[in-house]
Amino acid sequence: TTITRGLRRRRRISGKDGDRKISHIVKNNMASSFFSTTTNSEEKDTTITTKKESLEFQAETRQLLDIVTHSLYTDREVFLRELVSNASDALEKLRHIQVSSSENKTIQQDVPMSINITTDETNGTLTISDTGIGLTKEEMIDNLGTIAKSGSKDFIKQLAASGQEGDGGALDASRGIIGKFGVGFYSAFMVGDKVEVRSRSAYEKNSSQPPLVWSSEGVGTYDISDLSPDIKQDRGTSIVIHLKDDFIEYIDEKRIESILKKYSNFVNFPISLNGAKVNTMEAIWSMDPKDIDD
Question: The whole model's pTM is what?
Fold first, then answer.
């Protein structure tokens, strides 16, 4: 399906040029200190009905975004693997809390734990939703606006080293380098020129708080505001990727299904694509021992 939308086209960098780009970014993009500034503005938007708070990405995060957006993988389909993996982690965290903590009560316990993926050809978006632990405003800032883990420095160092290896190296999608360092969320910007994260915290103590939306074009700043009441967001998180023109293929249902079966068939939660279950293989560690054959 050919879809025309007014999206910015960005230059793609690969091969030796991409390696030089990585080295250049790592060498020159660390001058900024770790800080964030906040400004408030009243803006009307399709997803925003209240005051919007705009913040700057942490310096290391800006550096990482530039690397991921322009030159991390030659095979960009791995973004879906990373986002599904994150969704599974959010569900595992919720399950752990529900079975191990009597103090931290959660909401909507009748909502099944699942991952739901939706393609929208009209708007050119791909949405990955989970019914997991969700995010508060503070968690959005800590987890999406900064890279708190010391592993992020090792991640950038390894990328810099890979730039000296020539084509391939750590940039090979099969290596899973971005997931190894816990920064897989940013892979959404490999195929999207805008990403929204809509979320409602699963903790009962946060039940009075409205769901939030985090949004960014991945170029320096991000916004956080209350989600419009016209948009439903149950417990958990929905990542909405506004696809770049060059990657509009990722709203094709068959294309997404093939990627899911390739990378996510053994995820320990049901995955549905436009309402139909995709992962037919049940993870062996989730099965009752008596149901497992030798």
Answer: 0.75
